[in-house]
Amino acid sequence: MKVNCVCPGDMKTDIYENMTVMNVNRDEIIRVSRRSHFLLPQWTAEEAAREILRGVSRNKPLIVFPLLGRWIWRLYRAFPRPFYWISVYRMRMFRKIRIEAVGPVR
């Protein structure tokens, strides 16, 4: 039995249109989210499916796409600490939006 792990980059989905964000402007969340990972192109489901089928046909155990995503994954494997701080920075951006919208949580 063979197993493939798929790690797609940014996908074109309706996630932002279908999510519920309490007390925060949805457009602001979308703007900040795109700004924080602007380098990765958004893929359609069809593009992703082609890449996944290509990886499966080549018997790749790990299918990471797009190319920039593979390089980021490799950098993360070599230097995990900076990526931790990037994640912390992104969470702080989202918290700032919430605080500006509703004030600090008590």
Using DSSP, what is the number of strands? 2
Regions with pLDDT < 50 over 5+ consecutive residues? none
Cα-atom radius of gyration: 17 Å
The dominant shape is globular
Largest sheet: 2 strands, parallel
Strand order of the largest sheet: 1-2
Straight-line distance between termini: 52 Å
Q: Could you report the average pLDDT, rounded to the nearest whole number?
A: 84
Q: Given the structure, what is the number of helices?
A: 5
- Structural class assignment: mainly alpha
Topology:
Layout: E1 5-8, H1 15-18, H2 26-36, H3 45-57, E2 62-65, H4 67-78, H5 80-102
Parallel strand pairs: 1-2
Helix pairs in contact: 2-5, 4-5
In short:
It is built from five helices and two strands, in the order βαααβαα. The protein is mainly α and 106 residues long.
Overview of the structural elements:
The chain is mostly helical and 106 residues long. The chain has one domain. Helix content is 59%, strand content 8%. The protein has 5 helices and 2 strands, in the order βαααβαα. A two-stranded parallel sheet has the order 1-2. α2 packs antiparallel against α5 and α4 (67-78) crosses α5. The protein is globular, with a radius of gyration of 17 Å. The mean pLDDT is 84.
